Predict the 3D structure of the following.
Amino acid sequence: MTDWRLECGDCGEGVPVEGATLCPSCGKPLLARYDLDALDGEHLRRAWATRRGGMWRYRELMPLHDGESPVTLGEGSTPLLEVSVGEDLAGLRLLVKDEGQNPTGSFKDRGLSGAVTRASLEGVRQFVIPTAGNAGAALAAYAAAAGASAQLFMPTDTPEGVARRCEHYGANIDRVDGLIDECGRLAAEFGDETGAFNVSTLKEPYRIEGKKTMMLEIVEELDWKAPDAIVYPTGGGTGLIGSWKTLQELGALGLVEGSTRLYSVQGTGCAPIVRAFESQQRYAAKWEDADTEAFGLRVPGALGDFLILDALRESGGGAIAVDDHAMTDAALELGRAGIGAAIEGGATLAAARELYARGELRDGETVVLFNTAHLLTY
Ligand SMILES: Cc1ncc(COP(=O)(O)O)c(C=O)c1O
């Protein structure tokens, strides 16, 4: 039977599973810890191979008790595509994890499937989220699938088409004259006033559990070998933290050979993680006047900053900023390789180019780029 406990990612305090949000002592994010000693890695590897697609086939490492069913729309099992883009990068084996092929067009589906599943099983019928667009669409769809309601707070400058996409799934949207942090404040207020469950990034522990399945799929597809490096477009950092968690869990189960360096890419107009990495800080100061066309990366302050920075450092990776032009050009380059990449996906290719030029990515290495959303989500 799958069982897990929750502990604070910062102070380590244990927290009861039922109704958990943030650490009651220090207010930091909680992480799910499974009893890995009680699991047999070889047995899991064989069991997972016999199950149908989708991220819930890794259920022994997911927040689901025996007999419980997830709220699912078929998320996960996205392709890992080998791309050749430009002679200058010919020395690398570049793979793109194409998360644009999820039900609502982005990797947010995994996290929201995780969060809505657990909360619904605990009786939640009303959700709230601050969003740059993709998380809102995902929450709207998964809340709808669970028969629950969704309230979204979204910056006014988010493109109209993005808002329409969320409305399509029946969500209610409030436009906010401010950035995602202001939306976050209003979402928290709304939650306090109405009792709606707040599934804001890292304010509950299960979006990470959904997002970590990206890395599970990557390692499984590479025949249980870790890629040499991943490049991840980082806003709140859920997927990066989840990827690191997967590598640790698979390591403890004896299911992964080798190690992976994790790299975060952000926009030059909003790069709090890059700045904190370079100045050797454990927490990232808020970025003032955040400005980038990559809305998913326009996150001035991340609640899980220390978890992101720890993962980058412990893995021997790093953090790099690229400008909007480089991201857009690189997204077009991926387009010419047949991949419908959003600008955030483009950012990973632009970053890989720079990291290769700096000698941080080396000839012969396998490098995974995360295309976190489909071009059409914009
Ligand atoms: C397309 C896209 N890429 C990347 C991100 C950042 O993701 P994370 O919060 O996991 O760092 C977002 C978040 O909104 C996004 O929509």
